[in-house]
Amino acid sequence: MALFKCKMCGGNIPGVDGAVFGTCESCGTTSTLPKANDEKIVNLFNRANHFRRLNEFDKALAAYENILNEDNANTEAHWCAVLCRYGIEYVEDPQTHERVPTCHRTQYASILTDTDYIAAIENASDRYTMGLYEAEAKKNKRNSKRHPRNFQPRGAF
Ligand SMILES: [Zn+2]
């Protein structure tokens, strides 16, 4: 059985082989999972997510691109590449304990037109998973509009 790390908090998500979503044991978030039965891909994901949670977006993006080189139809890798490009950190709200996506990078194009986002939606294996991605993307979009001051442009973007 593969053990995935939560995108939001890094907690454990027990993954049934082949499952495309699961629930975190620590924060209770139901999130999309990489469709990976391959131990190598699972390890690449956990490594990439580790960098992303440290806001090392370039290192994380390179790791997700490695996954896409092996499996270009990997929905979750496309989605996580989007998170890196937009520099999205899941910050815990101290009052509600809800994880709120916060953008660290300025992107002028909408997340909904990002090619990796579109690839993620196109490759999503079922309606429920597709809905999880769409809901998360809308949340990110809404949040970036509401907190324009949080943007810290850096790098080549
Ligand atoms: Zn979690």
Characterization of this structure:
- By secondary structure, the chain is an alpha+beta fold.
- It has one domain (about 40-150): Tetratricopeptide repeat domain (Serine Threonine Protein Phosphatase 5, Tetratricopeptide repeat, Alpha Horseshoe).
- Helices cover about 45% and strands about 15% of the residues.
- It is built from five helices and six strands, in the order ββββαααββαα.
- The strands form three sheets. The chain has a two-stranded antiparallel sheet with strand order 1-2.
- Residues about 145-155 have low confidence and may be disordered.
- Zinc ion binds near residues 6, 9, 11, 26 and 27.
- Zinc ion (ZN) binds near residues 6, 8, 26 and 27.
Could you name the CATH class? Mainly Alpha
Structural class: alpha+beta
> Any idea what the CATH architecture is?
Alpha Horseshoe
Number of separate domains? 1
Number of strand elements: 6
Mean pLDDT: 82
Radius of gyration: 15 Å
* Main β-sheet, spatial strand arrangement: 1-2
Residues in helices, as a percent range: 40-55%
Give the arrangement of secondary structure elements.
Elements (H helix, E strand, L loop, with lengths): L1 E4 L6 E4 L5 E3 L6 E3 L6 H15 L3 H14 L4 H11 L2 E5 L6 E5 L11 H9 L3 H20 L11
Antiparallel strand pairs: 1-2, 3-4, 5-6
Helix pairs in contact: 1-2, 2-3, 3-4, 4-5
The structure holds zinc ion.
The site of zinc ion has 8 residues, from loops.
